C-alpha cells in the first residue's frame, strides 16, 4: 500500500486531482459549529468549542473554524463537488458532522452531486453531560454515493458505531478512533484509494493502510501534517511495506 500527503489548502489541492482516481471519500472537516454571531465564530478557538473547560491536554488548535452558515455550506459544497469529480462510479463519501451542522452537511453533499444515503451515529460513551437535559454523546456521519452502491460487493457494514475518543497517545483535538475508521475504510474496495481532504493527525490514513487501501490526504496545518506524516510512515514500517509517494525522499 502507499500514501500521498499533500500539505496545503484542501480545495486548491482537490482541483489538481485526476478525474475518477478515488474510490472512497472519508473526512472530518472543521465543523464551524456553535458560532451564532460573528464574535463567537472569530473569538472562540477549536479547543474552546470542542473540549471541556477542565481538559488537561494542551493540543494545538486547527484552522478553518470561523465561517458562518452560508459560507460554510458554499465552501463544503465546492470541496465535495471536486471530490465527486475525482471519484469513480459507486464511490461512497462519508462526512463527519455534529447535530448543529447535519442539515447543512447533507445539503452540501447533495448539491455536490452525491446521492444522500443516510446518517450514521457515532456514539461516544465518554462524552459531555448537559445539566437538565440529554447528554451530548453522539457525532454523525452523513454519507452518500456517486451513482449507486456496488451491489456486486459482498459487504455489510454496521449502521452505528460505539467508541470513545482516544485518550492514550491522543494528538488531535477531534481525533477519531482508529478502530472505527478501520470499519469505515472498508467501504473502499481492497487496493483502492481513500481520500481525506482534512487529514488532521492521520487516523483515516492509518486505518486505510492497515486495511489494505491506498491513501491520499490533504492537511493545511503544518503541525498536524507533521504528526500525520509520522503516523503514516510508522504504519507502513509496521507491516514492512515499501514507502511510496513524494514523501519517500523528504
Describe the structure concisely for a colleague.
This protein is an alpha/beta fold and 250 residues long. It is built from eight helices and eight strands. 30% of the residues lie in helices and 23% in strands.
Which SSEs are present, and which pair or pack?
Elements: E1 3-7, H1 10-14, E2 22-27, H2 38-43, H3 46-50, H4 69-86, E3 87-97, H5 102-111, E4 115-128, E5 136-145, E6 161-162, H6 178-184, E7 193-196, H7 203-210, E8 214-219, H8 222-238
Parallel strand pairs: 1-8, 2-3, 2-7, 4-6, 7-8
Antiparallel strand pairs: 3-5, 4-5
Helix pairs in contact: 4-5, 6-7, 7-8
Output the keywords:
8 helices, 8-stranded mixed β-sheet, alpha/beta, 250 residues, 8 strands
Overall 3D form: globular
Number of helices: 8
Class from helix and strand fractions? alpha/beta
Distance between the termini: 18 Å
Largest sheet: 8 strands, mixed
Order of helices and strands: EHEHHHEHEEEHEHEH
- What's the total number of strands? 8
Low-confidence stretches: none
Could you walk me through the main structural features you see in this protein, from its secondary elements to its overall organization?
It is built from eight helices and eight strands; from the N terminus they run βαβαααβαβββαβαβα. It has 250 residues and is an alpha/beta fold. It has an eight-stranded mixed beta sheet, with helices on both faces. Strand 4 (115-128) and strand 5 form a beta hairpin. Helix 4 crosses helix 5 and helix 6 (178-184) packs across helix 7. The chain is globular and about 50 Å long. The mean pLDDT is 86.
Amino acid at each position: 500500500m502507499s500514501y500521498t500527503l499533500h500539505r496545503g489548502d484542501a480545495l486548491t489541492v482537490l482541483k489538481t486531482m485526476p478525474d475518477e482516481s478515488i474510490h472512497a471519500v472519508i473526512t472530518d472537516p472543521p465543523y464551524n459549529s456553535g458560532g451564532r454571531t460573528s464574535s463567537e465564530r472569530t473569538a472562540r478557538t477549536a479547543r474552546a468549542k470542542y473540549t471541556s473547560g477542565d481538559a488537561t491536554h494542551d493540543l494545538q488548535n486547527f484552522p478553518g473554524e470561523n465561517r458562518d452558515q452560508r459560507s460554510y455550506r458554499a465552501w463544503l459544497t465546492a470541496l465535495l463537488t471536486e471530490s465527486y469529480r475525482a471519484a469513480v462510479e459507486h464511490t461512497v463519501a462519508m462526512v463527519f458532522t455534529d447535530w448543529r451542522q447535519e442539515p447543512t452537511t447533507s445539503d452540501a453533499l447533495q448539491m455536490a452531486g452525491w446521492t444522500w444515503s443516510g446518517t450514521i451515529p457515532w456514539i461516544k460513551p465518554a462524552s459531555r453531560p448537559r445539566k437538565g437535559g440529554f447528554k451530548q454523546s453522539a457525532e454523525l456521519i452523513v454519507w452518500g454515493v456517486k451513482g449507486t452502491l456496488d451491489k456486486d460487493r459482498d459487504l455489510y457494514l454496521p449502521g452505528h458505531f460505539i467508541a470513545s475518543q482516544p485518550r492514550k497517545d491522543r494528538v488531535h483535538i477531534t481525533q477519531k478512533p482508529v478502530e472505527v475508521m478501520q470499519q469505515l475504510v472498508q467501504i473502499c474496495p481492497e487496493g483502492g484509494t481513500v481520500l481525506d481532504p482534512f487529514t488532521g493527525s492521520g487516523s483515516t490514513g492509518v486505518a486505510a493502510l492497515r486495511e489494505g487501501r491506498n491513501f491520499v490526504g490533504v492537511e493545511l496545518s503544518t503541525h498536524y501534517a507533521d504528526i500525520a506524516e509520522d503516523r503514516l510512515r510508522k504504519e507502513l514500517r509496521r507491516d514492512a511495506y515499501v514507502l511510496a509517494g513524494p514523501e519517500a525522499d523528504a
